[in-house]
Specification:
Layout: H1 6-11, H2 37-44, H3 60-73, E1 77-81, H4 85-95, E2 101-105, H5 110-119, E3 126-130, H6 135-140, E4 146-152, H7 164-173, E5 177-181, E6 198-202, E7 216-220, H8 222-229, H9 235-239, H10 245-255, H11 258-278, E8 282-284, H12 294-300, E9 310-314, H13 318-330, E10 335-336, E11 346-348, H14 360-365, E12 372-376, H15 383-396, H16 402-406
Parallel strand pairs: 2-3, 2-4, 4-5, 5-6, 10-11
Antiparallel strand pairs: 1-7, 6-7, 8-9, 9-12, 11-12
Bound molecules: pyridoxal-5'-phosphate (PLP).
Length: 408
């Protein structure tokens, strides 16, 4: 673990293009020729390494990105997909069938929550949602039918931190697969190194970083990825959420700068979180000492990448949150938009957007308050300038008052 550095692993990948290009050539084909019918047969049977069959199964461009993301997470291999949900849903369907049970964190991305709550019961798969920060509750929810423990390293939108090593211990004891969505914390946390069996990302967010595509990946053992891609029984192969080769080539290029971006996102978010907390705003950021999981997170991170770019501020009411977001957008401080990991700051009120799938009473129970604004802090060059501009918006709307700020 000490010597594992995900960015070095990415740096060390050396790919040559077909004509000696510095970027790998893009495979612009959906199907591939065979010089002999026997090789085609063997490839269908899964016995021919290095032969391509059909791009829903894999393509040279996708395999380059698979390899890079597996290197980043320290898993044997990976499988990229057309979206984060295109990675999450086949992975869970590969692991579970009718009669099986999943124990999941209750604070997860709304789409994943809706899949587990509303969709998988149609297939006979049940899920119990738990407070993932309480390992005793997690263990108590396990039944003889449980196959999977599911969580996000840093949860969306409440930024709760999962104790991956503790969960891995429970998973091992009960012979479950621990599946971790690491979308909020690429490079910062390496879940597979802490004992997770499968690590998932929505590439749409930090890893691609330019909000110009959706994408996903499942990082796991060769055996599991082979099962996902099996032509007869693999959920990825049969459901078909394949990433296009042109896109995987562009995500690959963006991945090369992820370490620089993560450091800046983390630096900027820490800066703003410290300032706004001092100003008296209810601020949630895992890098703050006041965060309930600060020490746990500190013990898990690859420190040079920091605590990530996600932060929440509670400004009291939804009306105030909406007013503030509109004003900040008007002042060019960022965009009122869902998603995260973009070079400009993005903000949204999760209760009415990305977590709207979660019923109101459950939102209240998990502490997802009305006035909560989720920020994905951008790569701003001068973050003090940004802070001053944001503070001005907050004072204009009485979210901050001159007394509270003068008390600094
Ligand atoms: N996981 C997390 C933590 C997310 O925030 C999201 C999307 O917001 C997803 C998964 C789904 O990814 P995608 O939108 O790429 O399908």
């Amino acid at each position: 673990m000490k010597n594992f550095n995900p960015a070095d692993n990415i740096q060390d990948l050396q790919y040559f293009g077909e004509f000696g290009g510095v970027n790998p050539s893009i495979s612009d084909s959906s199907t591939y020729t065979f010089l002999s019918a026997k090789t085609m047969f063997d490839t269908f049977e899964g016995n021919m390494e290095g032969c391509y069959l059909y791009s829903r199964h894999s393509s040279p461009s996708n395999l380059y990105l698979d390899k890079a993301l597996a290197a980043m997470e320290g898993t044997e291999t990976a499988n990229v997909s057309a979206s984060g949900m295109g990675a999450i849903t086949p992975t869970l369907l590969q692991l579970c069938g009718s009669g099986d049970h999943i124990v999941s964190s209750r604070t997860i991305y709304g789409g994943t929550y809706a899949f587990l709550k509303n969709f998988t019961p149609r297939l006979g798969i049940k899920t119990t949602f738990v407070d993932i920060t309480k390992l005793d509750l997690v263990e108590a929810a396990i039944t003889p039918e449980t196959k999977v423990l599911y969580c996000e390293t840093v949860s969306n939108p409440l930024l709760e931190v999962a104790d991956i090593a503790g969960l891995a211990k429970i998973a091992k004891k009960h012979n479950l697969k621990l599946v971790v969505d690491n979308t909020f914390s690429p490079l910062s946390v390496s879940p597979a190194k802490l004992g997770a069996d499968i690590v998932i990302h929505s590439l749409t967010k930090y890893i691609n970083g330019s909000s110009d595509t959706v994408g996903g990946v499942t990082c796991a053992s060769q055996e599991f990825i082979d099962s996902l891609k099996n032509v007869n029984s693999g959920a990825s192969m049969l459901l078909g959420p394949t990433m296009d080769s042109l896109r995987s080539a562009s995500v690959m290029k963006n991945l090369r700068t992820l370490h620089i971006r993560m450091k800046q996102h983390s630096y900027n978010a820490m800066y703003l979180a410290e300032r706004f907390e001092k100003d008296g705003l209810k601020t949630v950021y895992p890098g703050l000492k006041s965060h309930p999981s600060h020490e746990l997170y500190t013990s898990m991170i690859n420190p040079e990448y920091g605590f990530g770019g996600m932060m929440t501020l509670d400004v009291g009411t939804l009306a105030k949150a909406n007013e503030l977001m509109e004003l900040m957008q008007a002042k060019n401080l960022g965009y009122l938009a869902v998603s995260l990991g973009f070079y400009k700051t993005l903000f949204s009120a999760p209760g009415t957007s990305t977590s709207s799938e979660i019923p109101m009473e459950e939102q209240i129970e998990m502490g997802l308050t009305d006035g909560l604004i989720r920020f994905s802090i951008g790569l701003d060059n001068d973050i003090e300038r940004t802070y001053q501009m944001m503070k001005k918006c907050m004072m204009e709307l009485n979210v901050l008052t001159s007394e509270s700020v003068l008390m600094e």
